[in-house]
Write a structure and sequence with these properties.
It is a single chain. This protein is of the alpha+beta class and 530 residues long. Helices cover 36% and strands 21% of the residues. The strands form four sheets. A seven-stranded antiparallel beta sheet has the order 15-12-14-13-17-18-16, with helices on both faces. Helix 16 runs antiparallel to helix 17. It binds flavin-adenine dinucleotide.
């Protein structure tokens, strides 16, 4: 087939905010008043008067890059360099808002295909220029911040021109994408063939296929469609020492699965230039509903029972008591006397027959386990607003309220311990004025991930308010024996905690692979490798 490209591209995100500028509405007056009842309101506009530092690359180096990708694709423009500075975690946004452009790349280079990526990597290795692959720029763990020590500068390798559907194999149910397609663009291309991928992280609007693979992302429908790494069939990766193609068969016993080395490698082992994924028919039916549980523990036990009986629906998530109370305008509406309990969202997608069969079995199981059905209202409300939270975060940052999230994962037997430790660490560090909310976001037969959201008074320096809380949460995660990340990846923020999880031998394996594929150390230096 000839390469298919999206009919419409997502607009660029502003440097200091999330998402499509047309969707940023600000806090409605009534909501602002409500927020003011809980947190001190303090208007904190972003600074836009700080200049981007001058590029450290020489005229000869820039000419060398122009010879590889064309003049128009070597960009020194301040606006684009500002937009390619860091990702979209709250600390990233706070630094941008404060005018801290210290991590701005020296140049943005936009290759048009795999061969140009290979050429840029070879040139960057020769010239000792750090290369930061840039997909959607939605990283939340410092994965887009390279350490240029010992190198001549930093090049942001913007994959936005590589936005094609390269191949479709409807017989095997696979599709091969270039890395720079954003979530909606990839789904729109597949939908023209009656197919879909089914990967819907909250960052769906802006994150890319290559970024999903490079971070081992997980979407909100992971219970039904799986994590992104589980969808990947094959990869093509450009490294400074050559090209790697992995995944010649659906499954094999040809030694260790090297795809796993590059999935989650966060640009430190190579640039993923092609991703072949498993696709499936578009669902004919989508139904989402709410269930109420007396407590977080009761709801968690119910999810575990479903997961361990192979009865998982497409979507399942469970808010704790605090998150349930905050999420619903009227917590009393889901029953209980003054106790909203805990809200579970359950979603079914597929053919009418498959949805009916799964819904009937899940409904029977949840009823037996003590859940109270709440109908489609809460489910539809969740589905409608599922991508809105990052816009709300910007509006709250605008009025001085600190909002950030973090996540972790553990086995079922350790869930309560992990929950208690992380919640206490956040609450104790941020103080009683902070709200700490949690939900179970991704589930397995053996365990689940916990996703925490905090809202707290930002104070004079919101970054200084947040960083000790994040450190305390990470230490609590390590102390609980859980994983430092379920789906946000390691980046630079979680790197100090990785060795505790994979051990010194594990860390040395990562360093050895890095040495083999990137001997000059130009690929995203400082990210991932302990
Ligand atoms: C509001 C918000 C909500 C989020 N929700 C979720 C969620 O629900 N689930 C989830 O999993 N994550 C979530 N994230 C995190 C983030 O969206 C994911 O990590 C995503 O997979 C990153 O994709 P990206 O294209 O934006 O990658 P980028 O941010 O551009 O890059 C991420 C990392 O991968 C590297 N990289 C990117 N592309 C390539 C490539 N082609 N080859 C090699 N390396 C590459 C980069 O150098 C960087 O280290 C969220 C982030 C935000 C801001």
């Amino acid at each position: 087939m000839t390469t298919e490209r999206p009919a419409a591209l997502q607009p660029e995100m502003p440097a200091t905010r999330w998402g499509d500028p047309a969707h940023a509405t600000g806090l409605p007056e009534g909501v602002r008043d409500l927020v003011g009842l809980v947190f001190p309101i303090q208007d904190t506009p972003a600074r836009s008067d700080v200049a981007v530092p001058a590029s450290r690359l020489s005229a000869d180096q820039l000419d060398g890059l122009r010879a590889l990708v064309g003049e128009a694709n070597v960009v020194l423009d301040d606006g684009l360099r500002r937009q390619r500075t860091r990702g979209k975690s709250t600390p990233d946004l706070l630094r941008q808002r404060a005018g801290d452009l210290g991590d701005a790349p020296d140049v943005v280079v936009r290759p048009g295909g795999h061969d140009e990526v290979v050429a840029v990597l070879a040139y960057a290795a020769e010239q000792r220029i750090a290369v930061v692959p840039f997909g959607g720029g939605t990283a939340v763990t410092g994965g887009l911040v390279a350490d240029p020590a010992g190198l001549t500068g930093v090049l942001s390798l913007d994959l936005g021109r590589m936005r094609g559907l390269l191949a479709l194999d409807p017989v095997s149910s696979t599709a091969t994408f270039e890395p720079g397609l954003r979530g909606p663009e990839a789904e729109a291309l597949l939908a023209q063939h009656g197919l879909m991928l089914g990967h819907f992280p909250q960052s769906f609007e802006y994150a890319t296929i290559g970024g999903f693979a490079a971070t081992r992302s997980s979407g909100q429908s992971s219970a039904g469609y799986g994590r992104f790494d589980a969808m990947v069939v094959a990869l093509r990766v450009a490294t400074p020492v050559g090209d790697v193609r992995l995944g010649a068969s659906p499954a094999n016993a040809s030694g260790p699965d090297l795809r796993e080395l590059f999935l989650g490698s966060e640009g430190a082992f190579g640039v993923i230039t092609e991703v072949t994924v498993r696709v499936r028919p578009l669902p004919e039916v989508k139904e989402y509903e709410g269930w109420r549980w007396e407590s977080f523990a009761a709801g968690a036990d119910a999810i575990r029972a479903l997961a361990q009986s192979d009865l998982l629906p497409t979507v399942i998530r469970l808010s704790d008591e605090n998150e349930t109370a905050i999420n619903l305008a009227d917590p009393e509406s889901i029953g209980g006397e003054g106790n909203a309990g805990c809200l579970m969202i359950v979603g079914y997608e597929g053919t009418p027959a498959a949805v009916a069969a799964k819904k009937s079995a899940v409904t029977a199981a949840l009823t037996d386990l003590g859940g109270a059905p709440q109908g489609s209202g809460p489910g539809e409300a969740w589905a409608h607003g599922r991508f809105n939270a990052p816009y709300l975060r910007d509006s709250l940052l605008d009025v001085g309220v600190l909002v950030e999230t973090l996540e972790t994962v553990t086995f079922w037997s350790n869930r309560e311990n992990l929950y208690t430790r992380v919640k206490s660490a956040l609450q104790e560090t941020l103080g009683e004025g902070a709200m700490v909310l949690c939900h179970i976001s991704h589930v397995y037969a053996t365990g689940c991930s916990l996703y925490f959201t905090v809202a707290a008074p930002g104070g004079a320096d919101p970054l200084a308010t947040w960083l000790p809380a994040k450190a305390a949460a990470c230490e609590a995660i390590v102390a609980a024996g859980a994983s430092i990340t379920h789906h946000h990846a390691v980046g630079t923020d979680h790197k100090p905690y990785l060795a505790a999880e994979i051990g010194t031998v594990g860390a040395s394996v990562l360093r050895a692979v890095k040495q083999a594929v990137d001997p000059a150390g130009i690929l995203n230096p400082g990210v991932l490798i302990p």
